[in-house]
């Protein structure tokens, strides 16, 4: 960065009251709190972070030296490399190369893997269906006087099995054929507070899948929050107890907290710290909640970039130069069972 640009950035940080990271605060693998060890000491399976090996993060020495430490992260989720567009780039053509790389990286660094994900209902299934429908209608055009759109959706006994249930059934069958023990999760966002979406997930997805067979093991609460809008511990406890009542395991799968404007102000950083604290606090208090995962741990590689999100960003526990935010202190404190000194 040029001197002029550096000074401009510093001026913005000062004007917005943002704490200026100093080199001495830079987190390395030796100073970064041992989040995984702390979580495991309290009976959890892991504390982890996603990694997107298609990004430059893997070439970032400081970042990788933190990621590689199993005392810090005992689990990972591929941010992108196991998605349909990577594993089946063309219909029927499979390519597991990048996903295999993530598995290898996890194995080398002693991490469990949450594989993510098989079907992205909204984008993948609906996208594929939309393309198919549009292409075929366009191709045959007015040669068709009428056309059947959906065929035989209801079973002979009047019951209805939706595509999500089929996805779980096929997944369970494939797992059983391997004689493996792979936990099958439904993963979604905005299911951390009681409301319409939680009710719909419970009534339209979980209950449907459960009544069709023993196909589902748990629910993934993505947990993408912001510095001004995040769940209270009470709200989290309420929804987690609903999930637990249905026998579901719970994972916090994609925890990040975006600051609505960037650079994140001092008060933004306080809200962010509180949001991280709340989510982890609720998981630590809930026996069925067994693991927590950051959706990356450095602002540079997180999906919420100010340029594409109306100025929102800075959503992780480390600034781009790997210096720690109050949120990292909050995470360490909650894992230690302490109150939050930075919230
Ligand atoms: O790799 C290409 C690169 O070659 C190309 O130049 C560039 C130009 O746009 O795109 C790159 O691919 C991007 C990819 O991330 C890797 O960075 C895609 O455009 C972009 O759409 C993709 O975004 C990912 C998004 O899911 C969509 O798959 C984010 O990184 C990823 O963090 C995000 O993760 C999702 C979870 O899977 C599900 N829950 C929500 C979460 C956030 O949206």
From TrEMBL:
Entry-linked Gene3D superfamilies: Glycosidases
Pathway assigned to this chain's UniProt record: Glycan degradation; xylan degradation
Q: By its UniProt entry, which PROSITE patterns does this protein fall under?
A: GH10_2 (PS51760)
The record, for InterPro entries, names: GH, GH10, GH10_dom
Q: What is its EC number?
A: 3.2.1.8
User: Which positions make up the signal peptide?
Assistant: 1-19
Give the first-level EC class, as a single word: hydrolase
Source species, domain of life? Eukaryota
Kindly list any coiled-coil regions of this protein.
none
Which GO molecular function annotations are given, in alphabetical order? endo-1,4-beta-xylanase activity
Keyword line: Carbohydrate metabolism, Disulfide bond, Glycosidase, Hydrolase, Polysaccharide degradation, Secreted, Signal, Xylan degradation
Q: Does the keyword Hydrolase apply?
A: yes
Q: So what family is this one in?
A: Belongs to the glycosyl hydrolase 10 (cellulase F) family.
- The protein depicted here goes by the name Beta-xylanase
Q: Which organism's genome codes for this protein?
A: Aspergillus ellipticus CBS 707.79
What is this organism's lineage? Eukaryota, Fungi, Dikarya, Ascomycota, Pezizomycotina
